[in-house]
Write a structure and sequence with these properties.
single chain; extended; 6% strand; mainly alpha; 2 strands; 209 residues; two-stranded antiparallel ribbon
């Protein structure tokens, strides 16, 4: 293959990539975080996620120490936020930035929901068709249950008391023993909070509530 043919082939491929990117690639607004470009057009970030999983975001964050950046994959975008101040700003704008769509997307993978169950979870998931739906109802129930009250104070006190059973051995040893912080936290808080809720439920049943 001569040089002219190679050059022509490269030009054709470049034009095809540019055309596909124009019609299928997501548009970019200058107000959005900077875009982290991918070495392989369209598929670079997808390959990275398949290869490294969620650690891919950590790899990019270490390589590009930005407060936030944008990943473009085909017709979608992913925003990665590293700045604590920006994370707080996002959390404060819950009415503008909704987490609900991710629940519908991830439920089959996390909980093993079948299509019928996921359809129930996803139905009116963002409340656009009215103040109803499984997730909106669940959120309202959680907010009601977490209103400051004597019962909530009692459960919090019970949980903290149970947590001391996990903290005390660490203080008593005092020898700098290393632990798996994630596993320790998961066990301590899961057991303590579950026991507090369980005891409160038994107390309510005992007084006929």
């Amino acid at each position: 293959m001569d040089t002219g043919t190679i050059a022509a082939s490269v030009a054709v491929v470049a034009v095809l990539v540019a055309t596909v990117n124009y019609f299928l690639g997501p548009t970019y607004d200058p107000k959005e975080p900077p875009v982290i470009h991918q070495r392989i057009p369209f598929l670079g970030h997808i390959i990275g996620l398949l290869q490294y999983g969620l650690r891919y975001f950590e790899i990019l964050s270490a390589k590009y120490p930005l407060p936030a950046f944008t990943l473009q994959t085909l017709g979608t975008k992913t925003y990665v936020i590293n700045s604590p101040d920006l994370i707080q700003a996002v959390q404060k704008n819950a009415k503008t930035l909704s987490f609900y769509p991710f629940v519908g997307f991830m439920s089959p993978r996390i909980f093993g929901c079948d299509k019928k169950a996921n359809a129930i979870i996803s139905d009116n998931i963002d409340g656009e068709r009215g103040n109803w739906g499984l997730l909106p109802d669940t959120t309202r129930g959680m907010h009601t249950a977490l209103i400051p009250s004597e019962s909530l104070d009692w459960m919090t006190k019970t949980m903290l008391t149970k947590l001391t059973e996990y903290f005390d051995p660490l203080v008593a040893n005092g020898d700098g023993t290393e632990i798996d912080l994630y596993k320790w936290t998961r066990t301590a808080f899961t057991v303590s909070s579950t026991e507090a809720v369980s005891l409160e439920q038994r107390n309510m049943e005992g007084i006929g509530v």
